[in-house]
Amino acid sequence: MKGKLPRVTAEKIIKILQKHGFSEVRQSGSHKIFRNSQGCRVTVPVHSGSILHPKLIKAILEDAGISPEELEK
Question: What pTM, to 2 d.p., does this model score?
Fold first, then answer.
């Protein structure tokens, strides 16, 4: 992976996941759980307006099978 990941909020990550076929299946406290048609599960912590840590963004992207380049689009 080249360069730094962009700084994004949970809301932006959720929009990207939905664009890639993920839909929310449940919520546990402040964590929303998403699943796609292949059964891949991704958990996103939602704290309104706060920026997600780059390591967390990287983990979410890896779980979802989305490249960092796609995130920047």
Answer: 0.87
